[in-house]
Please model this.
Amino acid sequence: MQIDTITLTSNQLTWRALQPDTDSYHHLFTQPFDDSTDALPDVQPRLFNALMLVQASQVACPLLLLRCSEQYEYLQLISEALESHTEADDQRYGGHYHINGPVISWQAADADDEPGDFVSNGGIHYADWIEDDQLFGSVRIFQNQISLKAGLLHKANGGTLVLSLRTLLAQPVMWLRLKAMLTQQTFSWISPDSNRPLPVSIPSMPLQLRLVLCGEREALADFQEMEYELSTQAIYSEFEENLQIADEEELIAWRNWVQQVAVRNALPPLAVDAWPTLIKACTRYTGDQETLPLCPCWLAQQLREAALLQGEITAASLSEAYATREWRESFLADRMRDEILLDQVLIETEGEAIGQINALSVVEFPGHPRAFGEPSRISCVVHAGDGEFTDVERKAELGGNIHAKGMMIMQAYLIAELELDQQLPFSASLVFEQSYSEVDGDSASLAELCALISALALQPINQQLAVTGSVDQFGNVQPVGGLNEKIEGFFQICQQRTLSGKQGVIIPASNVRHLSLSDDVVNAVREGQFSIWAVNRAEEALPLLTGVVWQHEKAPSLLQSIQERITQINQLDARQRPWPLRWLNWFNRAD
Model:
């Protein structure tokens, strides 16, 4: 099979494109870190603006809805940010309850009172889960003696309270009571049991409170549906999980943020050589070479594991931590890879075959922490028929809606390219071989299109290559997810079977920025043992797979082969017509 060398080299990626560029930023990592500077305003400017706004005394609605994780670390981080940017307040809020037998009176606090049960100096308070007694306090009677216990609301009086939204959604009665106090700015003692009133009358007390509710987007949607008017009046912001790196200033801000995470978790500072290794892991996590994560929990986990191994955070300790975690979580991936190597799952990595192609898939199992790549064999058979394209996965109810959509788009592109005036005189059947669970997504539509064209043109496909990408109705190749796992899954099979130097994968050109591959793949590409091609259109992938271009005016092409085959079957069909209809053949000859 003769493959156009120009086509191969024009789309082939160099090893430098397979990982983020860290060399050009090396000088930034040698700069000293100032741990007295808060990095939050630089990496979360929208969030910081919202936090400062809700702290303003003239704010109309003292409620901030914040989209972020409801983990304890996030609530603590938000509270610390509020506290570090809030001026000290000498004013006293709340007051004193005087209990004289069954009579309880109230006295407002003055400036000389020390903060106590119901006397507060404001401040920032937070809780990831809270019950009624903890939030509102309680009334207790022991041996006919009445006592009042303060709750978190009393301690936060005059300040800001940061709560998990799921806490309130799970306890709607508690939210209704808190909402009334927030809007009226008054704390009223109410019996938690509607069937048992309070034993005594307790005066209400003034309440000045700002509330920050942190929740995921689904929880915020439920809250908006439940409290539409309040949601429209509230301040809204988001904790942005990623930072787009466009210049050196943003990378410096991210570096300071990571160092701040290390300080908050009592971890050693990062060595200069640790930053490139960490950035490679970060871009792998975000799936984008130009995007770095801000999640404090994830960053702390990476740094903590490296520090536990060697007592310091260096390139060596980070690499060892990543390798150890991957080994620890790879049992399932290794077993499935063994199925291929033992020929229980048939995947060809050499030779040629008509209507057969290696697609790249990502496998995600519930309860398993790591997605991993696995090649899948797609096959297509074509026979004379009425133009029906059978999606076996859909017929067997194993194909999802997105997969079915990708199949129909792929077929629409092919029919448009053939420019037929009549129905295609072939029927085709496409299937994921040895697939016994649901298949969804459109990332295999490019591979399915190539397999279909191969079967129609009777042109074999190089089995040393694998393909991923979706196509639109105009033949443009669109980006897909899980690219790094897909490439590494096929590479590992080829590596186990010995790299020939002719194996490789074809990916969408728009996915190049998402590459953050393992050092094994990068080294193999650098040494010419493995190749990665990036294509913008389906026509660019076909010469790589079949050695024949899709369309050419002078040279043989796949499109010409398909049209000739269509002509042959139409002529055969014409000769087999009943004798009263054979006069139609005259028109076929005239054409």
About this structure: Residues 401-418 form the longest helix (18 residues).
